[in-house]
Design goal:
about 200 residues; six-stranded mixed sheet; globular
Amino acid sequence: MDEAEFQNIYGRWEPPDPAGARRVFADAPFRWWIAGGWALDVATGATRDHGDTDVVVLFDDLESIRAHFGDFHLWEAHDGSLRPLLAGEDLRPDREQLWVRRDAASPWLVDLLLTPSEEGRWLFKRDRAISLPLDELGDENVLRPEVVLLHKARANRAKDAADFDRTLPVLAAPARRWLDDALARHLPDHPWRARLR
């Protein structure tokens, strides 16, 4: 589906940049981190086009998230479909994304990525043995670039490979080791591993 078809069905995106995201989440009573390509832009100082703004939040904070966005519409996004998450309804099983917009006439603002956590640690959703303390997940509400790249590694689309290429030079040795160790466990044959050493 191309962008025009997508917008005809679901509506348009007008994602905020990191400064705009900070305004959207001003006074949020829960932890949140800018993720995806925007997080890599912050890390590298370079920029590319962005179709949306990904923000990581914790599953455990769902009720606080719903309260914070009480004047907005939240939609479950799953496998190419959208379903409104209405007041009083529970998130359906295996759902881990919420799209946010003011109302049906407004553009989508952010894509909330619900992530598991336990005892003060972030847990990688595809392998919970890969984790980090929540206090080390990012600085100034921006997810660490090696964590972003771990999420991108599985799809390894052209834009993910380009994101890896532009981010690798700014990854410090500990970040490279962490990502290599995580990939060794999650995707041991991934081509990025040889370049991380």
